[in-house]
């Protein structure tokens, strides 16, 4: 799993590449903590290359959303593959995030 983070002004884009399974989610906690620090603005999770997401990965997304809500920012999830989109649909996450 790889996350590339790029910030321009009040917008932070995080490109997620690979599989966000339970083991990788544990490794990526620090990266998501960095995103949460920027959650007062707009955080875009760019996901066309995200192949899989586990419940642990979903928890990272939800924690980031909570940080954004607390700080008055927002999280946008962009470019979900059909498999990951199905996970979001089944878990109700489609209703929690702005999906592009």
Brief overview, please?
This protein is α/β, with parallel strands linked by helices and 100 residues long. It has helices spanning 22-37, 55-71, 82-91; strands spanning 2-8, 11-20, 42-53, 74-78, 98-99.
CATH class: Alpha Beta
SS-based structural class?
Answer: alpha/beta
CATH architecture: 2-Layer Sandwich
Largest sheet: 5 strands, mixed
Spatial arrangement of strands, main beta sheet: 1-2-3-4-5
Shape: globular
**Count of alpha and pi helical runs:** 3
The separation of the N and C termini measures 22 Å
CATH topology: Transcription Regulator spoIIAA
Task: Give the full name of the CATH homologous superfamily.
Answer: STAS domain
Beta-strand percentage range:
35-45%
Runs in which pLDDT lies below 50 for 5 or more consecutive residues are none
Helix content: 40-55%
What number of structural domains do the residues give? 1
Q: H/E series, N to C?
A: EEHEHEHE
**How many β-strand stretches?**
5
Average pLDDT figure: 96
């Amino acid at each position: 799993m790889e996350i590339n983070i790029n910030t321009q002004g009040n917008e932070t884009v995080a490109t997620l590449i690979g599989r966000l399974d339970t083991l990788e989610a544990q490794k990526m906690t620090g990266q998501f903590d960095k995103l949460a620090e920027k959650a007062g603005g707009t955080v875009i999770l760019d996901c066309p290359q995200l192949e899989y997401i586990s419940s642990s990965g979903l928890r990272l997304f939800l924690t980031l959303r909570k940080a954004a809500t607390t700080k008055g920012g927002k999280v946008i999830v962009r470019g979900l593959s059909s498999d990951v989109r199905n996970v979001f649909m089944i878990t109700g996450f489609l209703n929690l995030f702005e999906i592009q």
